[in-house]
Amino acid sequence: MTELAPTSAPPTCPEPLCQLAYCSIAVNPIVQSTVDDILRSAQRNNLAHEITGVLLADDRLFVQWIEGPMHAVRTTWKAIVADPRHHCIVKLLQIDNARERAYPSWSMGYRDVTRQDVLAVIEEAKSLSTAAGFTPWKNAIDIFHTVLSLEFAPATPAAELPKVSGA
Amino acid sequence: MKALESLRRLAERAAAGTPGAPVRPQLVAEMPESRYADYAQSSSPFAQFASAELRHMAKVSLTGGGLVAGDDPQAAWLEARIGQVLWAQGKPHKGRSIHVLDASNQVLAICDGVNYKVQVHKRAGIAARGALHLSSAPLNDVTLEAADYRESDAWSLIWRFGQIMPEALVAVPARFATDALSLRRMPLVSVALLQPRHLMLIRLFASGPRRFEELLAMTGMDRQLLQHDVAALYLVRSLSCVVQTGATEVQS
Asked: What is the pLDDT of residues A93-131, one digit of tens each?
């Protein structure tokens, strides 16, 4: 297991701080070389852009938290959305104008987790988005959660499957 | 809003056991040279479960349009028209409120540009006359009854447009009929608008990019119905083409 990585100096952040978390599905099963490739390819961008956070992954799902100056997070988010190694991306949380970093000493930690761990994070994000009232990504979290729930549902006899009508 | 505590616990659990661990970089996008080259061999757990269910789905009659149970056709039609207007004008309204009016300047919808919430007129229905248009002019001299409006959101209205309006099919680039399609982002639409076949499509896409004809064969859906589903996913900016170079085309 690749472990988290505390770093020494929390980066300064004079600009408004933005925190963002997302979940996504890897296009191909996640193996260590996939993660190493992702982390290696990102090396040159971490501290330079004052972004910290953490990346979690099981064999198929990514969860990442990024935080830093607003413009840097936006730029990184656009790149993340365009990255072809994953898809079905769902924003779990976004906090603009945060007062302090949640992971000030981690340039970007990584560890592998279980599917249950990922589901717990998604369920908490779902609760938070519900409690916050309407957020643009609340619906996507609901759908993602539903799809994951279907994946883990026991095999359903055909007779019990929902009827599909075109209405 | 507080941070995700479950994520923090996971992070701290790992960090506690790794003092002095090497610095790890962040995840940023760097396009690999070959992408999606082996998606056909993808062994996602989604695919295995989906295939069993698809065998059943193929026997189910899939006809009709994009309405869901309990829908008022007139209201759905109005929502679709409003969705068309919102989609056509793109993202410029982000950050400011706009209104959708009919030819007689009846206010059909009020769109909050900050969070994309939309108040839609409940009873306008087909009484909405002529071409709809947008306005950002203040509504100071217009009396609006809150009880006449119900809350929706821009993405759900655009989804409606994709589901039931023939014009939506024209909006989809032709290459979406032939190239592999990737579900870049989960749709931001209300779960209440999704039918079982939509969840099935999403689960198929979760296992990897798919071509239209492949989806057609796997689901046994009516061609036009699938075209509307693909259109709806494209219009809400969830679906992208996997182009020859391997890059995904993402609507900005």
From this structure: 999 888 888 888 777 777 788 888 888 999 999 988 888
Phi then psi dihedrals of residue A105, to 5 deg = -105, 10
Which pair of tokens denotes residue B227?
């075209």
Instruction: Report the distance separating Cα B3 and Cα A163, nearest Å.
Output: 40
Q: Which two tokens stand for residue A152?
A: 């883990």
Instruction: Read off the pLDDT band of A92 (50, 70, 90).
Output: very high
Mean of per-residue pLDDT scores for chain B: 72
Window 161-180 of B: residues touching A by CB (8 A cutoff) are none
* Residue given tokens 């090497």 in the structure block: B22
Which residue, chain included where needed, has tokens 């695919």? B47
- Pick the residue of A28, A40, A114, A160 with the most B CBs within 10 A to test the interface with B by mutation: A28
Does this model's pTM top 0.90? My answer is no
The owner of tokens 């297991």 is: A1
Task: Report ipTM (2 d.p.).
Answer: 0.79
R_g over Cα of chain B: 22
Residue A54 tokens read as 């953490």
